[in-house]
UniProtKB/TrEMBL annotation:
This is GAF domain-containing protein. It comes from Nonomuraea africana. Gene3D superfamilies: 3.30.450.40. It comes from the Bacteria. Residues 1-28 are annotated as: Disordered.
């Protein structure tokens, strides 16, 4: 131990016993104070091994740092092969994910929990290369006795945080550790260079991923002409906006499917395009008063028409059946129930789930699952007509009855809804006995073969002539 290291060791002992140690760097003193406040003991604490092996393996495969670990290792390989040297990388919380070095160095590291899965944050390990670099958000070198834990005072650590340069997200840190007598003053510069190279690679990967998302989803996002639209990543970054500039460059909070408001009060709707994002965003401010409702027209139509957040869609025949069934069952339907109502007793839930996935591209956040149901206000022509049968005039009811519900559908659930509404309205027409209403019924395509109503009309006509 050289004189400088001895003086630093004496300063550490003084500081940890409560005395002032002027020889210690202010950043290190502040780090020691943070460690003490969080209950770390220099002689009795060890970093906890929080992540089980299977979780570590999963992170080594899926963590954003995984794609640049080979770059980091390649840049620092010379240091990793020197006796007593270790290279390790952590996530943003300080969990070690990769540890590399010669066998003797790794065996020594295992005794102080410097292993994959261990948490080397300041709150658990006190002052260290990884923990303090993450806490300060900048490269940092911890020399021997500057470590808070006594088990680490014989080592020098040089660490640098790694961020995604496009998003600014802190991803983790890279560290080179060696016995203090073997420490090189250039080690921190080497670690910083490796971190910057990794960040450049991450930036290019992010730009390529953004371009793939634009190519895949932009046509879907921009399909509504005349509406302010945008493609927003899962991290809130605006990947494309039309017209440009109508959204801030980044959504201030993690995007969530459904309605939201801009700082200026304008209303927008977020629609999730895949399980992990991105999102289509449409401005619905200024639309008519019914724009917040899902408006469904299915009477007299083989293919239903909906208006959602100010945008009109004509559904396929199968999607029309599914939306009608969901509108008629506001509490929701399981995939099994939808399969029976749509395809009969032999219906397969896998078929329903596939159709619902496709339907969700249109309905977006309005379609929830487990059970499948429509979210928010829904106004369906066949339901409102049914509600008004007892109170509205027969003439007004016939004005609204464009024809039977999805007349070409053979889905059992739709047939039941169609027959019930048709018969209820027919009974109302018969009971009223008005010749004009009877005539309208028998001259419409759905009533031309209705013998009972025609007979009622003939009786009404005979009564009028007798009078």
């Amino acid at each position: 131990m050289d004189d400088s290291t001895r003086r630093l060791a004496r300063a550490r002992e003084s500081a940890l016993s409560g005395q002032r140690a002027a020889q210690v760097r202010p950043e290190v003193r502040a780090s020691w104070d943070r460690a003490r406040l969080q209950g770390v003991h220099p002689d009795r604490s060890l970093p906890p091994i929080e992540l089980p092996e299977d979780r570590v393996r999963g992170l080594q495969r899926d963590h954003p740092m995984a794609s640049v670990w080979p770059t980091l290792l390649g840049t620092l390989r010379d240091a990793a092969t020197q006796p007593g040297h270790l290279i390790f990388a952590s996530d943003s919380a300080g969990h070690l994910l990769w540890v590399m070095g010669d066998r003797s160095a790794r065996r020594l590291a295992e005794g102080v929990h410097l292993v994959p899965g261990a948490l080397w944050s300041e709150g658990k390990a006190g002052t260290s290369g990884v923990g303090t670099a993450l806490a300060l958000g900048r490269p940092f070198r911890v020399r021997g006795p500057e470590h808070f834990l006594s088990v680490a005072v014989d080592f020098t650590c040089s660490a640098a945080p790694i961020r995604n340069p496009v998003t600014g997200e802190l991803l983790g840190a890279i560290d080179v550790t060696c016995p203090t007598p073997a420490a090189n003053s250039l080690s921190l510069s080497l670690v910083v260079a490796a971190a910057r190279l990794a960040e450049a690679q991450l930036g290019e990967q992010t730009r390529q991923q953004d371009e793939r998302l634009r190519m895949r989803y932009l046509e879907h996002v921009m399909r509504h002409k005349g509406i302010h639209s945008a493609l927003v990543g899962a991290d809130g970054r605006v990947l494309h906006a039309s017209p440009g500039g109508w959204l801030p460059k980044r959504w201030p909070t993690p995007p969530r499917e459904g309605p939201a408001k801009l700082p200026d009060g304008r209303r927008v709707v977020f629609e999730r395009l895949s399980a992990t994002g991105p999102f289509a965003v449409h401005c619905v401010d200024g639309a008519d008063s019914t724009s917040e409702a899902l408006v469904l027209h299915a009477l007299g139509r083989d293919r239903a028409w909906i208006r959602l957040d100010g945008v009109a869609h004509e559904l396929s025949a199968r999607h029309s059946e599914l939306v009608v069934l969901l509108a008629a069952h506001p509490a929701g339907l399981t995939a099994d129930a939808l399969a029976r109502l749509t395809y009969g007793q032999d219906g397969k839930t896998v078929t329903v789930r596939a159709e619902m996935t496709r339907l969700r591209r249109i309905l977006g956040y309005r379609l929830a699952s487990d059970p499948y149901r429509l979210v928010g206000q829904t106004a369906a022509d066949f339901l409102t007509l049914d509600d008004d049968l007892a109170t509205e005039s027969v003439g007004a009811l016939l004005d609204r009855y464009r024809g039977p519900l999805l007349p070409s559908s053979r889905a059992e659930g739709v047939e039941a809804l169609r027959d019930r509404l048709h018969q209820r309205l027919r009974v109302r027409v018969l009971s009223h006995g008005d010749p004009d209403a009877l005539t309208r019924w028998t001259t419409a395509p759905h009533g031309r073969d209705d013998v009972l109503v025609r007979q009622a009309l003939e009786r009404a006509g005979s009564a009028d002539r007798a009078y």
